[in-house]
């Protein structure tokens, strides 16, 4: 009884964070469908009725986990790119480093955001897509800024910028998952790999040095 009274005296925000921490861990380990509310309650050190009292249902609990982790990841990336005194490449580097650092330091959260949220249908996939679009907006703004500063960069269209941002974010997501699963790969190494891969190509593009195939493929091969 004393333990129960002590638990009830914790501020709601603290107790709710404990529940979300436990839920993220459980969802990452077992997936949304298999995760047990009993296990989540046990990991959080509370009763299952209390979990339902705070977060209503398993679906709402999972949604709350996605929103919290997405918000913290976005805040980390935004903080990385906020110094406008830096050139675009340095800001992009800072944003990528923040992204990979978050994924490395919060592996369970990254599994929830990058895998579980996207494979369970709506409304979870929409939450994950919203996060991805916001990160792509950060990247697009930096690429656009760099293009405006570069000689010959006026040839890069808004569509080019959007496509490059999507490609870069997709690469970052895949690389973050690989880095977390590969022993010895640090967040800094992963960020540097993507920066070297992406910025060299972006630099050429901004100088109007576009790659093109040496010879066109026969029409039948292109269309399959």
Task: Report on the architecture of this protein.
With 224 residues, the protein is mainly α. It has helices at residues 2-8, 12-30, 37-44, 48-55, 58-81, 88-105, 107-119, 124-149, 158-181, 187-206, 219-223. α2 packs across α3 and α9 (158-181) runs antiparallel to α10 (187-206). Residues 1-7 have low confidence and may be disordered.
Q: Topology of this protein?
A:
Blueprint: H1 2-8, H2 12-30, H3 37-44, H4 48-55, H5 58-81, H6 88-105, H7 107-119, H8 124-149, H9 158-181, H10 187-206, H11 219-223
Helix pairs in contact: 2-3, 2-5, 2-7, 5-6, 5-7, 5-8, 6-8, 6-9, 6-10, 7-8, 8-9, 9-10
Low-confidence stretches: 1-7
**H and E string:** HHHHHHHHHHH
Proportion of helical residues = over 70%
Beta-strand percentage range: under 5%
For the CA atoms, what is the radius of gyration? 22 Å
What would the average pLDDT be, to the nearest integer?
A: 84
SS-derived structural category: mainly alpha
- The gross shape turns out to be elongated
The count of helical stretches stands at: 11
Outline the biggest β-sheet: none
- Please report the distance between the alpha carbons of the first and last residues: 71 Å
- For the secondary structure, the number of strands is 0
Based on the model shown, name its key terms.
224 residues; mainly alpha; 0% strand
What can be said about this structure in brief?
This protein has about 220 residues and is mainly α. The protein is built from 11 helices and no strands.
């Amino acid at each position: 009884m004393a333990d129960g009274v002590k638990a009830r005296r914790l501020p709601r925000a603290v107790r709710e964070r404990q529940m979300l921490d436990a839920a993220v861990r459980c969802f990452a380990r077992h997936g949304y469908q298999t995760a047990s509310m009993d296990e989540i309650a046990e990991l959080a050190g509370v009763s299952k009725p209390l979990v339902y009292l705070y977060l209503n249902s398993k679906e709402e609990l999972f949604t709350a986990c996605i929103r919290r982790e997405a918000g913290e990841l976005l805040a980390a990336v935004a903080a990385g790119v906020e110094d406008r005194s830096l050139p675009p490449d340095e800001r992009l580097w800072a944003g990528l480093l923040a992204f990979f650092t978050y994924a490395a330091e919060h592996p369970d959260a990254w599994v929830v955001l990058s895998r579980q949220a996207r494979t369970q249908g709506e409304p979870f996939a929409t939450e994950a897509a919203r996060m991805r679009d916001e990160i792509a907006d950060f990247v697009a703004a930096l690429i656009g800024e760099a293009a405006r500063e570069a000689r010959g960069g006026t040839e890069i269209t808004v569509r080019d910028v959007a496509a490059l941002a999507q490609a870069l974010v997709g690469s970052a997501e895949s690389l973050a998952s690989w880095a977390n699963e590969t022993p010895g790969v640090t967040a800094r190494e992963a960020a540097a790999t993507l920066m070297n891969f992406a910025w060299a190509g972006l630099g050429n593009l901004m100088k109007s040095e576009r790659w093109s195939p040496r010879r066109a493929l026969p029409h039948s091969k292109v269309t399959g």
